[in-house]
Amino acid sequence: MTENVSTEALHKRPWKYVGYRGFCDFVVSDNDFFVLRRFSQLTARVLLALQDELSELEEQLQLLENHLSDPASPDVHNGSLREETSETRLELIREIDKKLRAYNELVIQHSEVRSRPRVPEKDISSISNWFHNYENAIHPPETSYIHSHGDLFAVVPKNKTPLRRLLEQSSHFRLWKLWKKAPKIQDENIHYTSDQRIDFFVGMINTTLGLIMLIVPLWLLAFVGKTVNRLAIITAFLVCFLSLVTFTTIARPFESLGATAA
Q: What residues contact residue 5 under an 8 Å CB cut-off, 6+ apart?
């Protein structure tokens, strides 16, 4: 990671030779490692505060307009923006505009962040292992974000099928040499895998199982005479096929049903 630095010096002063430069090299080397916090609780607090401030401004505007439209009040044109004579109302609307923009922007931004899937435990472990291998390279309080498991999101999430997520729970599967690819940074502690190879392998499993679901019942029906038995075979394989599509692909429920019906 750092040239012309002895291993002993690297381990004694990682905060000098590794630091954020080394950590950023690691983080950007693979999308799985680029993980941040949502700050969901803080965002909720800010949104609730903005909501309350807007409610107060709304009440103030309502009270002001009730006063301006009161028969006992001086005649004021309440139906024109160009001929507005109430400076108080203008200031209120300008303040509402600022608060409302901040509120809406934060709602939209946070809804996008909240919609991202949770970070898999294996990716959190990878980052935690880097902090462990390069202890004190990053100031410890600044690494505490990685412990907020439920509040983490990947900047560039990978859309993986349930089957692939199941297979990747096995460290033997993840570390299989067949998936290994050339590292982007020189670090013997980091194992990089090829998404293309894994996806191709999972795709081959899907194709094989799909062919079995389609071909096997045809042969079974050829040797079964009774209608009830035929219906039982067709029903069983339809259920299996639907389960297969749901489990091995990222298709939505109606798409899975459509594929099964076809």
A: 17
